[in-house]
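Notes to self after the Tuesday call (sharing in case useful).
The group wants a holo model before anyone commits to mutagenesis around the pocket. I volunteered. Ligand is nicotinamide-adenine-dinucleotide. Logging inputs and output together so the record is complete.
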Amino acid sequence: MKKVIVNEKTSSVALDILKQAGEVVYMPSGDLTEFTRLIKDVTAVLLDTTIEFTPELMDVAPLLKVISRTGTGVDNVDVEAATKRGIMVLHTPDANTVTAAEHTVALIGAITKHLVFLDAETRKGNFKTARRLYLPIDLDGKTLGIVGYGRIGKQVAKKCMGAFNMKVIIYDPCIEDSVVAPGVVRYSTEEPVYKQSDILTLHVPLTDETRNHVNEKVLSLMKPSAYLINAARGSIVDEKYLAWMLKENKLAGAAFDVMTNEPPRLDDDLLLAPHFVISPHSAALTTECTVRVACEAAQGIVDYLEGRHPRSIFNREGLNM
Ligand SMILES: NC(=O)c1ccc[n+]([C@@H]2O[C@H](COP(=O)([O-])OP(=O)(O)OC[C@H]3O[C@@H](n4cnc5c(N)ncnc54)[C@H](O)[C@@H]3O)[C@@H](O)[C@H]2O)c1
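Result:
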């Protein structure tokens, strides 16, 4: 019987799906040393974002045929190395879209309404002073800039236009005009989006092109009253420069779900910066979404093991499928 390893705490429904097709090694600790020891004879891996799947790790697992990511981004898998070794990389691009978009909206609310700060001040006994010390902003009529108008970017646009009457402007060089929703204004360059946004949210994948792209060059275009949201990937943003901007009041605030180093060091510049809200890469970790994503990722493995084509093969082209 083929062996499948699961490196994350996952739903029992997903484990039951996997058990239909193989022997399941359940390793919810996510510990790299244990993982390296256990993958020697596995055929498939159900993988979250905590382990970097390097070529060296692939070489420890000569029988490995499938890496199935429970999520959209596959940047913690060396896809080129996997393709060279004939390993199929699967992901679940649609299963977490709405959930990640909802979390993005929650981050927008948390930072622009100063919720974390106000909660802390109220608990310190500063009820009377905190409420007028540092005022939040209305979202109604504000301009939301979206960089990366894919699945999640589109959902964030829809929710913010519908719920908050925001104006939405976008930059995404890779899409057709036909996918841009009515009322959304598309720019062919990124500068106007950085300049005009009251809130700017990033929804691009982490690639060689986007890594560290949100740096001084574009961040310095933003209004000092603006907010930056990142629920995409940490390494897209120059975090040191952003921390400096927050300290120097060059930007009103930032709310992130992701950071370059996860978990970040407690003395990380950004964690120590004012007006910064962070969640622990948990945008897609709702009760419903964790089950949905794990089941879809598990089904992809079962499809492969039973000789069917899995639905979302990330390296389909590389594998000539
Ligand atoms: N925080 C989380 O838990 C979480 C959950 C889901 C997804 N994500 C991240 O969000 C990213 C986006 O997810 P998605 O499902 O919307 O992906 P998607 O592929 O549907 O959309 C990404 C969009 O970015 C655009 N893009 C690519 N390069 C660009 C660039 N240089 N400038 C502007 N636009 C560019 C693409 O054309 C595409 O439309 C994922 O790659 C993943 O890294 C994070």
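Two things stood out.
The two ends are 26 Å apart (CA to CA).
The pocket of nicotinamide-adenine-dinucleotide is lined by residues 71-73, 93, 96-97, 100, 147-153, 171-175, 203-206, 209-210, 231-233, 257-258, 281, 283-284 (CB under 6 Å).
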